[in-house]
Amino acid sequence: MTADHLSTDVVVVGAGPVGLMLAGELAHGGVDVVLVEKRHAPNTESRASTLHARTMEILDSRALLPEFGDPPNEPRGHFGGLPLDLTLPTSHPGQWKVPQTRTEVILQEWALSLGATLKCKHEVTALKDTGHGVEAEATGPDGTLLRLHCRYLIACDGEDSTVRRLTGAPFPGQDAARELLRADVAGIDIPARRFERLETGLAIAARRPDGVTRVMVHEFGSTAQHRPGGDVSFEEITAVWKRVTGEDISSGTPLWANAFGDASRQLTHYRHGRILFAGDAAHQQMPIGGQALNLGVQDAFNLGWKLALVVRGKAPHTLLDTYHSERHETGRRVLANIRAQALMLLGPPQVGPLRALLGELTALDDVRRHLAGMISGLDVRYDVGGPAHPLLGARLPCTELRLRERTVTTARLVRSGGGVLLDLTARGSGPPAPAEGWADRVTEVAAQPTPGSALYGTERVLVRPDGHVAWAGSGTDGLTEALTRWFGPPR
């Protein structure tokens, strides 16, 4: 068999939202990247439809939000089916309803416009980490073979990851015990149901502006079935729906149907040498409240700039270890809250007292803010080391800054894809900041914060390309160390 050969800096396996986000970030950072996708055509199944506040901030920091138009915004989400106000200090509070198909189209156009290459109809069948790079093989249309040579390979190929199987990466956790059946159905007219726990099961029904109704149903006491690819017949869904609600939806036309369980698994390590994992390839969870897609996109945003610096020779490969340490802990917390929510949603009637108690607790603002921060991704704080400061490790607060004759948002500061050293001393006349050796990776910006903002009173802030604060203080103590840790040695 003849084979085509392709060499590149990075191969990303999987062209869903996570893979596309990562490919765009890498291309934005000056890296040659090839996306390998086994599908023959773009996805037409809109599995995930919720973008949370932190993801919206990320899209804003890459100037992508205008492409999304004016999607519906809902300030109220839920925790385990209990209503929860998600409003927190951010430029995009609440949750935003965008079909996954639309998200993928926008991210694909962005990645390709920056120079990424997309190879559809190619399925990875073999790979090897040589220590100096990764060699992979992918079967293309009509059985053609594509041999790929790259410096790093990133698996973004979902919960049934082929790359994970080929590498044998440990993926401990729990198999699904319960499941939800769901379908998008045209031609039915049923009452809206928001996480309605009835006598025999849970029912959810939401009608979209185009008249299609998404239904989801779980029958109490039922167990998860082995369903390769989540396949489920519409007949099974209509039967369960009728037993739980008494309504007959069999006359409708199913546009899409699938089942998903409450399996909970996480890779022991997100990095295996020159092979890394992101999104559902790294962690499997029940997609409750839209957290799965958002968690994966945020994985990609954390990894992209780090890998770009390493590939370009600006930072040592050990920087990639911080991707695992930061995102594995974030993923662990998200999986834990999703397991709790799954029990609240799908558990038997005996969970009723627990639901009632939590309903009382969410009326307390501290509890509400804690849960809302967890679900939205706004509460993520990384252990970045350095002198203690209230901003350290957290995302840069959303606020406006005065730069000479214009006002900009903090999201705009990292649009270049590099780091930013903010001088907030009003006149930009404080002690010289030792950042000259990193001028090719970090931009120094003199700005005035708004009085009363979270930045007011701090003299300098070092911001990573993903918007998280790597160092903050009034002098320069620890700044050189922070610059070296996150951006490599000076020129």
Helix content: 25-40%
What are the segments in which pLDDT stays under 50 over at least 5 consecutive residues?
A: none
| Overall geometric form | globular
Q: Based on the structure given, which CATH architecture of the largest domain is correct?
A: 3-Layer(bba) Sandwich
Notes on the structure:
- The protein has 491 residues and is of the alpha+beta class.
- It folds into 3 domains: 3-173 and 265-376, FAD/NAD(P)-binding domain (3-Layer(bba) Sandwich), CATH 3.50.50; 178-261, Alpha-Beta Plaits, CATH 3.30.70.2450; 400-487, 3-Layer(aba) Sandwich (Glutaredoxin), CATH 3.40.30.
- Helix content is 27%, strand content 27%.
- It has 11 helices and 28 strands.
- The chain has helices spanning 17-28, 53-61, 100-113, 162-167, 234-245, 291-311, 321-346, 352-361, 365-376, 410-413, 479-487, and strands at residues 3-13, 33-36, 50-52, 73-74, 76-79, 82-85, 95-97, 117-119, 123-129, 134-139, 145-155, 173-174, 179-186, 193-197, 201-207, 213-219, 253-261, 264-266, 271-272, 275-277, 283-284, 400-403, 406-409, 419-423, 442-446, 448-449, 460-463, 469-473.
- The strands form 7 sheets. Strands 1, 2, 8, 9, 10, 11, 19 and 20 form an 8-stranded mixed beta sheet that branches. A 5-stranded antiparallel beta sheet has the order 14-15-16-13-17, with helices on one face.
- Helix 1 (17-28) packs parallel to helix 6 (291-311) and helix 6 runs antiparallel to helix 7.
- The N and C termini lie far apart (47 Å).
- The model has no long low-confidence stretch (mean pLDDT 93).
